[in-house]
Structure formats: structure tokens, C-alpha cells
């Protein structure tokens, strides 16, 4: 199977796993996360989807009660996000064809400034996805007693995915922190949010956008399942 097929297979398995999770078919989802991780493992070492695949598999293992295995997998995901950050620091990031006149003028007069803005955007996205993984790891290891660390995770997730990011709200709820969320706020599903963002992404950065927006955060359902399978 070539690299393009591996990427398509990873995405297909990932979306199927998300849908299985939404339907509370957790065992089926865990098998799909495992398959997605196997496909991602054949991609280049700096491919962001490897980090996402490890995160999702680790979270599913945690929910199933395989705590030690989950910790190891989530820790590997954390290491991979560092590799991804280094990749974003050096990758050539093209401008979008639909850029505004402001950005065209900025590119013409200050090309370095625009390049820095584009890179900062993707570094922020990488940091947000890494914060989701870090929060999952903290739950798996039981290291959830540091409010400042949790707040930093929340800030990184909101900076990457918006103030209404479901992953941030879950952490706020789990840590019993004050919530700034407005009543009536519509929170998109993981797949809906990914689809809304991926369609406007330049091809070169799709690996990061796909990986970051399809990195799954802890929910109360996952945590309840983990508590029924102490491992």
C-alpha cells in the first residue's frame, strides 16, 4: 500500500471510529483506532497523523481499562507532537489562493511578516492538539491535581480551536473550574468541526489540520468507562 493509500486508510478508520464512539460502540471504535494507528505508523515519522493516531488509540485503551498500555501510547503521542512542532518550524507553508487583499498586500510589502503569521497559526494548532494529548495523559496517569497545568492546557486548546472548543469545556468541567461558556452556544462534533476547517486548507498543511482536528479529547463517557475498568 502506497503512502497516499495509507493516508486515506487512516482517515477512513478515524472517521469510522468517531462515528462508532458517538453510537457508544466503544469496542468497535477501539479496533478502528488500532487500525488507524497501524496505517499511520507507515507514514513518515514527522507526519502529524502519527501523533493523532497514537493519541486516539491511547485514549481508547485508557477507557477500556488498559491503563499502563494507554500511558505508554499517550506518552509516545506526546513525543510525536514535539516532532510535529519541529516540522512546522521548518516546512514551507504556501499562502491560500483565497487570501484577502490585505494579505496580498502584506505578502508583497512584508513577505517575512506574513510567513511568520502563517507559521504561528499552525504552531498554535499543533500546540492545541498537543495539549489535548497532554490532558489525556494526565488523566491516564492520575496527574490531574495541578490547576495551573490544566489551565494552560485549556488556554492552548482554546487558542487553537476557539473559545467554544468542546475539549476545553470538558477539562473545565472535570477540573471544576469557572466556565466562560455562554448558554446556548452550539458545539460542533469533532467530525463537523474538522470538515468545516479542512476544506479551506492548503494541501501542504492538510496533514496537520487533519491530525489536529481529529485528535480526540477526554469526555465524561470515556472517564466513566475507565473507572468501570480499573487497570
Automatic annotation (TrEMBL):
Protein name as catalogued: Uncharacterized protein
Species name: Hyphomicrobium denitrificans 1NES1
Lineage of source species: Bacteria, Pseudomonadati, Pseudomonadota, Alphaproteobacteria, Hyphomicrobiales
Amino acid at each position: 500500500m502506497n503512502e497516499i493509500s495509507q493516508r486515506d486508510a487512516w482517515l477512513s478508520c478515524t472517521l469510522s471510529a468517531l462515528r462508532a464512539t458517538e453510537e457508544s460502540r466503544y469496542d468497535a471504535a477501539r479496533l478502528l483506532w488500532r487500525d488507524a494507528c497501524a496505517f499511520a505508523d507507515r507514514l513518515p515519522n514527522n507526519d502529524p497523523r502519527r501523533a493523532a493516531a497514537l493519541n486516539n488509540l491511547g485514549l481508547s485503551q485508557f477507557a477500556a481499562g488498559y491503563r499502563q498500555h494507554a500511558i505508554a501510547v499517550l506518552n509516545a503521542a506526546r513525543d510525536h507532537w514535539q516532532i510535529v512542532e519541529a516540522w512546522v518550524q521548518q516546512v514551507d507553508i504556501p499562502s491560500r489562493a483565497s487570501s484577502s487583499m490585505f494579505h496580498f498586500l502584506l505578502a508583497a510589502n512584508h513577505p517575512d511578516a506574513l510567513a511568520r503569521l502563517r507559521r504561528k497559526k499552525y504552531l498554535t494548532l499543533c500546540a492545541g492538539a498537543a495539549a489535548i494529548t497532554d490532558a489525556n495523559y494526565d488523566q491516564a496517569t492520575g496527574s490531574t491535581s495541578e490547576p495551573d497545568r490544566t489551565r494552560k492546557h485549556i488556554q492552548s486548546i482554546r487558542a487553537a480551536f476557539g473559545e467554544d472548543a468542546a475539549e476545553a469545556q470538558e477539562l473545565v468541567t472535570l477540573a471544576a473550574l469557572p466556565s466562560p461558556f455562554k448558554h446556548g452556544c452550539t458545539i460542533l462534533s469533532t467530525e463537523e468541526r474538522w470538515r468545516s476547517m479542512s476544506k479551506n486548507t492548503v494541501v501542504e498543511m492538510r496533514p496537520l489540520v487533519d491530525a489536529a482536528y481529529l485528535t480526540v479529547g477526554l469526555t465524561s463517557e470515556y472517564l466513566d468507562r475507565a473507572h468501570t475498568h480499573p487497570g
